[in-house]
Amino acid sequence: MQWLATAGEMKTIDRRAIEDYKIPGVILMEHAAQAVARAVRERFAPVRTAVFAGTGNNGGDGWAVARLLRTAGWEVTVFHPGSEKDLPPDAAANREMALRFGVPDRPWDAVFQAPGLIKEYGLIIDALLGTGFRGTVTGDYARLITAINGSGLPVTAVDIPSGVEADTGRISGPAVRARLTVTFGQPKVGLMLFPGREAAGEVVVDTIGLPGALLAEPASFYTLAPEEAAALLPPRIPDSHKGNYGRLLVVGGSPGLTGAPVLAGLAALRCGTGLVTLGLREGLALPEKPAELMTARWSALRWEDFQAVVMGPGLSRAADGKELLWTLLPAECPKVLDADALNLLAGEEGWWRRLRGPAVLTPHLGEMARLCGVSPETVRRDRLELVREKARQWGVVLVLKDAVTLVAPPEGAVYINATGNPGLATGGTGDVLAGVIGGLLAQGLSAEEAAVLGVCLHGAAGDLAAAEFGAAGMIAGDLLQKLALVIKRGTECGKV
To answer: Which residues of 216-251 are buried (b: 16+ CB within 10 A; e: fewer)?
Structure first.
């Protein structure tokens, strides 16, 4: 798995590299500058380049990048605050080296006095603010960022775009809009989450010579490489039958909402589940039911007959659904609670105390807000802390669905999903996700494995659908065939 670093975790890694491995900080800065210069030279033809350097070590990286590009024959100018007395030692050393190599420098005031000056350049290197930044950019930094964005020039950000919070991806003021971000050691959490993810553009990760043992230590967040996701796929046994791949029950559906459980059931079949039954209210007709799905009435259901249960797609908030949900909570079978199952729980204080067996909850922002008794805006703002806190409190694996979906187990690191696109913002895709997770549970994966893999597969299927139909034109049903293709690719070549 790929660990994702917070600013504090990355700072600790840097400190330990210097103290425990005796790597001088100036060497790490040189490696960082080499990574940026290499990425720039691979993507851009030599062009007149403006480096905007701040007052910290990020600025020191910028001075070093300018020196390396000048050595390679590029025309480079460093724009700086004008007073360098407070530069950290390594940054000061790189400023001195750059000047001795003949790198031209100009104060920021030159930009403020001649707004058109930036347009005399063809490329900008953003080395203003690093991963330690929090809050809102103000003053000269804000003016510079506004000028950089207004220039229309391609921007390469050093470690993280200035104005983006490294721990959250939050932007609360001006922030650089980069075409390329070269980040060091490990990807920063803020580069994975919107709006920071969009501001970063293409992200290149370079280890800059940091010890592999430090980078391999567990962190607070992680994501999966395609081959790691593929390794979680349940194997298909040559000498097997449908009973080997689990029995899943999908409970849901109500008048006007009969498609939701069908989508969930078909998604479970597409990810390899052996048998899928739809649990339906008495008298509810399913005109769109495919032949591959079985049905059973609520009065005939026995939780112990199934390896996993999905409850909620199209359920409605009627009293009979709540009564059935209340019988499912203490059942030991693995379960996925989605959609109206979550809305029914939201009105019950202490519902999690009745819960038994492995459980995955899949709320979107609005459902999460109702479960927590807060506003959707609060959920969005505090999602990283909230998802971890509530997973622990409720004793569940919590899947918070958003533009970037999070998966939090009761203990351990939070998964940040890297797949998916805006085309998934359409009705029914959540039902598909619930079915995928339930199907993986029925095939024997743990609740955390099923949630992480299910979210990854779901997003990857969405990416294939968007590539074929466009993000605006794709619909939830398009994901079903694409799920099968994603899994086929994963089993054949180790990638999803």
So the answer is: eeebbbbbbebebbbebbbeeeeeeeeeebbbbbbb
Task: Report the candidate in 144, 99, 151 with the shortest Cα–Cα distance to residue 122.
Answer: 151
Residue 4: count of CB within 10 angstroms of its CB: 25
Same domain, 53 and 186: yes
If 0-12 CB within 10 Å is exposed, 13-18 middle and 19+ buried, where does residue 323 land? exposed
My answer on whether 320 and 284 are in the same domain is: yes
Strand partners, 184: 206
As a whole number of angstroms, the distance between CA 116 and CA 344 comes to 59
Total domain count for the chain? 2
Of 218, 237, 271, the position where a domain reaches its end is: 218
Strands 180-184 and 294-297: unpaired
Same domain? 240 vs 358: yes
Is pTM, for the whole model, over 0.90?
yes
365 — pLDDT class (breaks 50, 70, 90) = very high
Alpha-carbon distance 355 to 337, whole Å? Answer: 11
Single-letter residue type at 372? C
CATH number for the domain spanning 415: value is 3.40.1190.20
Task: Write the pLDDT tens digit of every residue in 126-183.
Answer: 999 999 999 999 999 999 999 999 999 999 999 999 999 999 999 999 999 999 999 9
Q: In 373-472, where does DSSP find H-type helix? A: 376-381, 383-394, 429-442, 447-469
Domain stops at, among 183, 218, 253: 218
Handedness of CA 205, 210, 211, 214 (dihedral sign): negative
Domain range spanning residue 189? Answer: 2-218
